[in-house]
Amino acid sequence: MYTVPKLIDFSPAALDSAVRELLSALDQESAAVGSENDWKAFRDRWMARKNGILTQLNDLWLKAAPGPNKRDVGQRVNELKAKVEQAVDATLARIQSGVSSGKLAAERLDITLPGIRRPLGAEHPVIKTMNEMIGVFRNLGYSVEEGPEIETDFYNFEALNFPPNHPARDTQDTLFIAGQESKPLRDRLLLRTHTSPVQIRTMQKMKPPVRVVCPGKVHRNDALDATHSPIFHQIEGLAVDSNITFCDLKGTLDHAMKAMFGSSVKTRFYPSFFPFTEPSADVQISCIFCDGKGVRDGAPCRNCKASGWIELLGCGMVDPNVYGFVDYDATKVSGFAFGMGVERIAILKYGVDDIQLFFQGDVRFLEQFG
Ligand code: DAH
Prior knowledge:
Oligomer: single chain
Number of strands: 11
Helix content: 25-40%
Bound molecules: 3,4-dihydroxyphenylalanine
Shape: rod-shaped
Distance between the termini: 65 Å
Number of helices: 11
Structural class: alpha+beta
C-alpha cells in the first residue's frame, strides 16, 4: 500500500520520480475500486482533510521544502491535487455506469445499440383456415365442440356404424395404442382417424336441435408425401333437428364453399359412401384455378386433372343406425353431417404444393401468412 514518502532531495529529478510513483499508486487503487463502498474508502484515503494523501503532501512535501524549491513543489502539489480529484470523480462515474474493471467489454451496456424487438408472430395457415371455416359456420348459428385425440374404438368406429371387420379398423390405416388386446374391442384406444367421433360425443350430451362444428387433429397410418401426412386436421359438422333434409345440407355447404372460395364457385354433390350417413355424397367445387373450364393457358388444368371439378369433402344424411347409439329417436329427428380436411382447403386457398410445409415449422414459409 502506497505511503507518502518524506522528501530529502527536492531536485526536479527526485520530484519527478516521487510524482510518478504517486500517480501510479493512484491509478492502481482507482482500478481496484469495484463498489460504492470501495469508492468511499478510496476517496477518503486520498482526499480526507485529516490525513488524506493530499493533506500529507502539503505537510511532507510542501511545508518541508526549502525556500528555493517551494515554488516548484507547490506547482506539482497543485497539479497532483487536480489529478486526484479527477481520478476520484472518474472512478465514481465508472462504478455508477456498472462497468467495473473486472467486467468484460461484452458485459458493458452500450445504450446506442438498438433494443430487443420481439418479432410479430403469424397465425399458422392451418389454424387460420380452420378459424375462417369455423367463422362461416358460427355466422350460421353453429357452436364449436371438441373431443379427445385418443379415442376408443366405440366412438371412432362402432357408434358410427362401421361393421366389425371394416378395413378402416385395420392397422394399415389406424394407429392403435399398444397393449389393448385384453380389453373388449369397443374399449380399445386408438388415435382418432377422423373428427366424426365428436358427433357421437355431442349427441350423447345434447338433445336436438344440434348444430355444431368440431375442429381437430386426426391421425392415420399413412406414409408422408406431398399430399399425405400421418397427422392432419379436419372440421366435422353436424346438424340434427326435426325436418332437416338433403336440401338443407346442399344449401349449407354451397354457402360455406362460396364463403371460403368466392361467390362464383359452384358445388356438385357426387354419390359416395360412408357407414354413418345415408345417402352419402362427396362435394366437389368448380376448379378455382381454371374457373371450372378444365383448361388453363391453353393446356389441360393440372389442379383438377382437366375435369373442372375438385373434390373437397364428404357428407350425407345421418344414418338412422347412428341415432340408435345415442338415444335419439330416429323416427322424430333427421340431420346431416359433413367432414373436411383443413390442409386440403389451405393448399387450395394458398396455392401450397406440399403438405409437409405445414408441419416443418420453417418460418420462411409460415411468416408469409402474417
Ligand atoms: N369422417 C370422414 C373421413 O374422415 C369424413 C366425413 C364424411 C365426415 C362424411 C362426415 C360425413 O361427417 O358425413 O373421411
